[in-house]
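Deliverable D5.2: sample structural annotation.
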Amino acid sequence: MSNHVNIMLHVDQDEALSWDVDEVSRRYHRLHNGTLLPQKYVRVMN
């Protein structure tokens, strides 16, 4: 199948477990646009 990419990455479990919900949301929205409601939530947090 040539229509996808596999990415291998390392997750620092201790760092990831230290994130609160707001930090997870901020980091997610750095990579993805998301829908309108989460975008507004992230804007309010910042």
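Annotation notes: Helices lie at 13-18, 21-31, 36-45. The first helix runs from residue 13 to 18.
The annotation will be released with the project's public dataset once the embargo ends.
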